[in-house]
Write a structure and sequence with these properties.
The chain is mainly α and 427 residues long. It has 16 helices and two strands. It has two domains: 71 residues, no CATH class; 229 residues. It has a two-stranded parallel ribbon. The relative contact order is 0.09.
Length: 427
């Protein structure tokens, strides 16, 4: 069927292409899948309506998915995959396009479910649950979402290190301490540094979370704002301690990423100098571009692989552009907070102001108070997911080390007490 589809109406053409994709996937035929991709390109030349543009992205995602399943590497522990990159990219484009809103609930549920499935495959099971829940919000009896959600939660439960927490895994994975960690006797009498690192990461995350709550619920003028001389720049800025608390919350939540990278660099002995390690470069061999570190390539660690794929959302340009609206520009926002300026304004009043500010000209990232809150909430969610992936990833690695250590190695347990709440005070 190597003919053009110019003589078919849009609906019939889309139906034909969908059939070719389904058959190509069932038969593991790369030729059929490539043919379907070519037909989609022909169809796009017509200038499709929004609904069909979004559906075309969904079809391309299905092509990538079918190619991944047909690949001989399908069951291998690949940390980098063109097929997964393509599938996630196209599903997010389908979600982000205006045509998505014109789908019926079942079609929307299918796309949410598929995105949850591929995120779960990479190890990003926290975000996967969110997408399955969105599918079920659209269609409460959508069996595909229920089934995959159950499978995902089952794997999640299997990753936990405390059997008593399986029924409350979302809380347990974050609130419990790190799993048991083995360290050499010659590394000193105290606990491994990774435990102190993890303590500090959690404490700083909790402080950032509360800072956002404080800023959002602030009332009146804070005493620290009184008497501070500020000029009216006629663009309806939102100034004051409450706004700065929200900025602090964003910075604190974003800082979790680099701290996670520092901990993993030490724990996995990746060898990156302390002053150079960050969440962007942790995964790669220094000086070799995007060459995955040999200690990670092929490593059978589902949560750590999820952490790697989370980093792509933050730092890879093409991926960042198709994340959900509240997750876009997080890197740029953080960069301006640390090195330039972030101006927060009242969105409604700013729309009536004749005095606008161009960020590219003045080094100012202009954002409404509503968008700042939304992006900070998203950043907190991503940081929380990173902490869970870190904790469970170390658990998986400790199990691997135990299994490969051999019976002749001696292990002496060291139980650490809990730091009580009553000690968390300065007076």
């Amino acid at each position: 069927m190597r003919r053009r589809i110019g003589d078919l109406p849009d609906g019939k053409a889309m139906q034909l292409i969908g059939t070719i994709i389904d058959m190509g996937g069932d038969e593991r035929s790369s030729a059929a899948l490539d043919h379907a991709d070519g037909l989609l390109a022909q169809l796009a030349e017509r200038g499709l309506p929004d609904r069909d543009v979004s559906r075309a992205h969904y079809f391309r995602a299905n092509i990538w998915s079918a190619k991944r399943r047909a690949s001989p590497d399908c069951s291998a522990w690949l940390w980098k995959s063109e097929h997964i990159d393509g599938e996630i990219l196209e599903l997010r484009k389908a979600l982000g396009h205006p045509g998505f809103a014109k789908f019926d609930p079942v079609e929307r549920a299918q796309i949410h479910t598929n995105l949850g499935n591929v995120l779960n495959h990479t190890g990003r099971f926290i975000e996967a649950i969110e997408y399955w829940d969105r599918a079920l919000a659209s269609v409460p009896r959508f069996a595909m979402a229920w089934g995959n959600r159950g499978i995902g939660l089952g794997y999640y439960a299997g990753s936990l290190y405390d059997p008593g927490h399986h029924a409350v895994m979302m809380i347990a994975a974050f609130e419990s301490m790190l799993p048991s960690i083995s360290a050499g006797m010659d590394e000193g009498p105290g606990p491994p540094a990774v435990i102190r690192h993890f303590n500090l990461i959690k404490q700083e995350f909790c402080a950032a979370r509360y800072a956002l709550y404080e800023g959002m619920n602030s009332a009146g003028v804070h005493f620290s704002d009184r008497g501070v001389l500020l000029y009216n720049t006629l663009d309806y800025p939102t100034l004051g301690f409450a706004v700065e608390r929200m900025k602090m919350a964003f910075r604190g939540a974003y800082a979790v990423f680099d701290k996670v990278a520092f901990l993993l660099n030490d724990y996995l002995n990746l060898g990156i100098p302390d002053r150079q390690v960050n969440f962007r470069n942790l995964w790669f061999v220094k000086g070799k571009g995007k060459t995955l570190h040999p200690s990670l390539d092929g490593l059978a660690n589902w949560p750590l692989r999820g952490l790697f794929w989370l980093s792509k959302d933050i730092h890879e340009e093409g991926v960042r552009e198709v994340t959900e609206p509240d997750a876009r520009e997080l890197y740029e926002l953080r960069n301006h907070m640390e090195h330039k300026f972030v101006s927060v304004h009242d969105g409604f009043l700013r729309s009536m102001s004749p005095n606008s500010v161009e960020a590219s000209e003045s080094g100012i990232f202009d954002i409404s108070i509503t968008d700042l809150i939304t992006k900070t909430l998203r950043q907190l969610k991503l940081s929380r997911a990173a902490i869970i992936y870190l904790s469970l990833g170390i658990h998986v690695e400790e199990k691997r080390r135990f299994e490969t250590r051999g019976s002749k190695m001696i292990s002496v347990p060291m139980i650490l007490p809990v730091w009580e709440d009553k000690w968390k005070r300065l007076d």
